[in-house]
From TrEMBL:
Its cofactor is heme. Heme binds at residue 338. SUPFAM superfamilies: Cytochrome P450. Belongs to the cytochrome P450 family. Keywords: Heme, Iron, Metal-binding. This is Cytochrome P450. GO terms for molecular function: heme binding; iron ion binding; monooxygenase activity; oxidoreductase activity, acting on paired donors, with incorporation or reduction of molecular oxygen. PANTHER family: P450, PUTATIVE (EUROFUNG)-RELATED, PULCHERRIMINIC ACID SYNTHASE. InterPro entries: Cyt_P450 (IPR001128), Cyt_P450_E_grp-I (IPR002401), Cyt_P450_sf (IPR036396). Pfam families: p450.
Length: 391
């Protein structure tokens, strides 16, 4: 029997529908083929939360360390593309600055300043695309601050990031990578070398350089940049969209900003900024009722797991008071759990609270309806909003 016979829903699933509106199909898959073979993906898709956890916990069977991993082809091996002892060796030197207390002490006032500046710059027009004018620039500024590269500003970091993303996307699409990604990475590496050599700087890269070779620090710096920009822009934009789409829930939050944390978790649950994570089977194995072969791609749908009704009753509902929203898996799970989850949460929390405080009657622009889009990184292409009086 062919895979298409064993997994008819998977065979009928297209990547285009998963990019557009994945939720109805993911619900069917989760119920009937929770580990399904998708010919268009050329891999397995895991949609049930318990099975998703099993995959992400078991790096010996389901590894990230595979030559097909496109980011590593551009920036070299890093914590994101290694497992086992090598993963620990690459990740450990970066752990401390991303602990909750260090994040608060090290970043809160920077994020507050940057948020205030961006809101002030929104200007008096009362209409803007918050993704491009607010969420994106804030995400770039915070990553630039976190890296602390000497002589490098946010515009430079953004230009490198764009070039590296283009190369990674080319490779993912099966094309030869455009050369500007390699050139941007070379400049990032040179900036890392200059930073590490500068005794006057307190960048987290300097302390990492005590334990990793400089090219290894550069690879991980690229991953911090890569991991921190697109996803955080999405996290902030999606949370704004969810709240603005649900005025009743926004009213609860405006009345009690303590509910904002729940709103952010709930938004991460419904639309995780990174919708999937990829793993590769290191041996023949069985997952659920699927027989997986060594070398097979196993894609975990965080989006699918996050709406598993076994854990989240009425899973499609946006409920800022949902008690277990923090069980969402937007930051993955296991050894590759997002290094900077605390930072991303703090950033989103400050950004949203200040926006809602400073922009009265902030609302979606009815002339520009929008919805999250994307196969891997999901967010609205634009988030056009209106407000009544200038900031
Ligand atoms: C300042 C912002 C961020 C930075 C610097 C950052 C950085 C990182 C790094 C370095 C890793 C690799 C950890 C490892 O492999 O051991 C990682 C993993 C991950 N991050 Fe983040 N991240 C940020 C924000 C986010 C956001 C907002 C999301 C989603 C909403 C996210 C989702 C993930 C996921 C799903 C993984 C796991 C990847 C995998 O298992 O293959 N990150 N992040």
């Amino acid at each position: 029997m062919s895979a298409a016979d064993s997994f008819p829903l998977g065979a009928a699933t297209t990547l285009a529908e998963l990019a557009r509106d994945p939720h109805p199909r993911l619900a069917q898959l989760r119920e009937r083929e929770p580990v399904s073979w998708l010919p268009e993906l050329d891999g397995w898709l895991v949609t049930r939360r318990d099975l998703a956890l099993s995959v992400m916990r078991d790096a010996a069977t389901f590894t990230v360390d595979d030559p097909r991993f496109s980011t590593a082809q551009v920036v070299g091996p890093s914590m994101l593309s290694l497992d086992g002892d090598e993963h620990t060796r690459h990740r450990e030197p970066f752990n401390q600055p991303f602990r909750p207390r260090e994040v608060r002490d090290g970043f809160a006032s920077f994020i507050e300043r940057e948020t205030e500046r961006l809101i002030t710059e929104l200007g008096p027009t009362g209409a803007v695309d918050l993704r491009r004018a607010f969420a994106g620039p804030l995400a770039v500024a915070v990553v630039t601050e976190a890296l602390g590269l000497v002589g490098t500003d946010a515009d430079t970091v953004l230009a490198w990031y764009d070039a590296i993303v283009r190369s990674v996307s080319d490779i993912t699409a099966g094309h030869e990578a455009a050369p500007d990604g390699a050139a941007a990475y070379a400049r990032l590496r040179a900036a890392v070398e200059a930073t590490v050599a500068d005794r006057g700087t307190s960048s987290l890269l300097v302390s990492a350089a005590g334990r990793l070779a400089v090219p290894e620090v550069a690879s991980n710096a690229a991953v911090l940049m890569f991991g921190g920009i697109e996803t955080t822009e999405g996290m902030i934009t999606n949370a704004l969209l969810h709240l603005l789409h649900h005025p009743d829930q926004l009213a609860l939050v405006r009345a009690d900003f303590d509910l904002l944390d729940g709103a952010i978790e709930e938004s991460l649950r419904l639309e995780p900024g990174a919708a999937v994570v990829d793993r590769y089977a290191t041996c023949d194995t069985v997952l659920g009722s699927a027989t997986i072969r060594k070398g097979d791609l196993v894609t975990v749908s965080l989006t699918g797991a996050n709406r598993d009704p076994a854990v989240f009753p009425d899973p499609d509902r946006f409920d800022v008071r949902r008690e277990n929203a923090r069980l969402q898996l937007a930051f993955a799970h296991g050894p590759h759990y997002c290094l900077a989850a605390h930072l991303a949460r703090l950033e989103t929390r400050i950004a949203l609270q200040r926006l809602f405080e400073r922009l009265p009657a902030l609302r979606l622009d009815p002339e520009h309806p929008t919805a999250p889009y994307g196969l891997v990184f999901r967010k609205p292409l634009t988030l056009r909003v209106l407000w009544d009086s200038p900031a």
